[in-house]
Amino acid sequence: MPQFFLNREEAGRKLTEGYPAPKENAIVLGIPRGGIPVGYFLAQRLGSPLDAIVVRKLPLPGSPEMGFGAIAPDGSTVINHEIVASLYLPENSISRISAAVLEEIHRREKAYRDDRPFPNLNGKNVILTDDGLATGYTMIAAIKMARDKGAGTVTAAVPVSPRDTATRISELADYFHCLHVSDRYPFAVASFYEDFHDMSDEEVIGYLGKALGKNT
């Protein structure tokens, strides 16, 4: 499979090409970690502020790269009930995994935001970014959180996605902007990047710090 992007930064810059959604009164929210550099360069091009929306995948026991849903900082979850049923995943396991992931979300929120409050989304054109979609459940959780916080419109903006996930997300967001929708399986976001290193908290904090310096 060909590589389309040198790195997440290049992907963020390219996301401005043909950008279809409202740019006025907009805020870019990146899903950490990989969605932050993508969001940073998109926000630069749009002249919009950047912040983090810390939603996380609920990993399958024994297969942490695969997920059965996602959870938001307020503890609200979106669950893939078909996967849960097919794997006979018991409720106590779901609760245990959710609690552990929520603890990590709160740690990351403290690291990324410190005492800075979550931005006011009321009436804003919210742009949610990630470095790519797989099942899309973290993006679904982010869309739900943005709507719950009063977003005027919600755009999901990603460099790459498999076809079925793109269809699912486009039905939930007001706008869906994706540079490459793939019909090839197996699908791996990393295969579309030359550099897809595991990002650190320090890198995320660095991008957020630069964005805050520019927008304040």
Task: Give your account of this protein's structure.
This protein is an alpha/beta fold and 216 residues long. It has a domain at 8-55 and 114-215: Rossmann fold. It contains seven helices and eight strands, in the order H-E-H-E-E-E-E-H-H-E-H-E-H-E-H. The chain has helices at residues 8-14, 35-46, 81-86, 91-113, 137-148, 163-172, 201-215, and strands at residues 26-30, 50-52, 56-60, 63-71, 77-79, 125-129, 153-162, 175-182. The mean pLDDT is 92. Residues 21-172 form the Phosphoribosyltransferase domain.
- Helical/strand content category: alpha/beta
Radius of gyration: 16 Å
Give the beta-strand count.
Answer: 8
Tell me, rounded to a whole number, the average pLDDT: 92
Main sheet characteristics: 5 strands, parallel
Please state roughly what percent of the residues sit in beta strands, choosing from under 5%, 5-15%, 15-25%, 25-35%, 35-45% or over 45%. 15-25%
Task: State the CATH topology of the domain at 8-55 and 114-215.
Answer: Rossmann fold
Distance between the termini: 41 Å
Written as H for each helix and E for each strand, in order along the chain, the element string is HEHEEEEHHEHEHEH
